[in-house]
Design goal:
301 residues; Hypothetical Protein Yjia, Chain: A,domain 2; 2 domains; seven-stranded parallel β-sheet; 13 strands; globular
Length: 301
């Protein structure tokens, strides 16, 4: 099963749910991170799950597409009953059918592709789907669309999003949730591939958004970190990562005006704050200015 959806829509939350539902089975997991520093892999890591992380681009872009094909081939050699793929938030899955056909002669076992689930962010989808071609493509090629964060949207907005989904993909199932609360096993078991011919992905090196990683130099003041994220978020699609703060290790998750900085008590993560820019390289000057004013010497670009 392929899982798509924009940055911060709730894919990782849903994947946690799926892994819990299939905890008694042999699972393979491919995690695709757009930034060069992996975050979701740390959040999803658990015993018994064979995981492969592919970072620094979309698995459907030439930049790391060959790595994705090799990962699929390698996963077919292991004793797993289900393979789940969490694509990056900017992934265009139009070529998934073509990819599976291309690797078929090289896999030890054939994949029974059940289709894609797209997590639609009710808080951002109507505005961003008009400017980011990957978002409507994610809906067009999904078997089920989950309209998530329903608690943040009005009834009229939810209806508007549902109508847009129907226009893009009349055959897909639509589920409305908050925090991706649903029966993940039942959803996975009733999926079937969308009847749509593979297309050319819009994920190209030229269309790739800019992303940057801020590295810590010692402990980061929590107040300054919050102000930094607040300053950069209007110019970013997503900000996330792990940092050593003066109060302990924290996980940062920020999207569409919502900022969450919470204590992290899991295994030691790779430190870094990933900033995916919505204004291209223009964000560098904003990062530099914000660091000088708030966290000079504590975070480095």
């Amino acid at each position: 099963m392929l899982l798509t959806g924009f940055l911060g829509a709730g894919k990782t939350t849903l994947m946690k749910n799926i892994l819990d539902e299939f905890a008694d089975e042999k699972i393979g997991l491919i995690i695709n991170e757009f930034g060069e520093t992996g975050v979701d892999g740390t959040l999803l890591s658990r015993n018994g799950v064979r995981m492969d992380e592919l970072a620094n681009g979309s698995i459907f872009c030439a930049c790391i597409k060959e790595n994705f094909l090799q990962s699929l081939i390698d996963m077919s050699k292991h004793d797993i009953s289900h393979l789940f793929i969490e694509a990056s938030g900017l992934a265009d899955p139009s070529e998934m059918g073509r990819i599976l056909k291309a690797i078929a002669p090289k896999t030890e076992r054939n994949y029974d592709y059940r289709g894609a689930v797209c997590v639609v962010d009710a808080d951002t989808f109507p505005e961003l789907s008009d400017v980011l071609p990957a978002l409507p493509r994610q809906v067009e090629y999904c078997s089920a669309a989950i309209i998530n964060k329903a608690d943040l949207a009005s009834e009229s907005r939810l209806n508007q999003i549902a109508q847009t989904i129907i226009q893009l993909n009349p055959a897909c199932e639509i589920i409305v949730t908050s925090y991706c609360r649903l029966d993940a096993r039942a959803l996975a078991e009733r999926l079937s591939p969308v009847e749509k011919a593979p297309g050319e992905s819009t994920n190209t090196p030229q269309a790739r958004p800019s992303s940057y990683v801020l590295k810590p130099n010692g402990e980061v003041p929590l107040d300054g970190l919050h102000e930094l994220v607040k300053e950069l978020l209007p110019y970013s699609y997503r900000i996330k990562g792990f940092l050593p703060a003066d109060s302990g290790v924290v996980a940062v998750n920020a999207v569409a005006g919502h900022i969450e900085i919470s204590p992290w008590t899991g295994d030691a993560p790779v430190y870094g704050l990933v900033v995916i820019s919505s204004i291209g390289i223009g964000i560098i000057s904003r990062i530099t200015k914000a660091l000088d004013g708030m966290l000079k010497g504590k975070l480095c670009l």
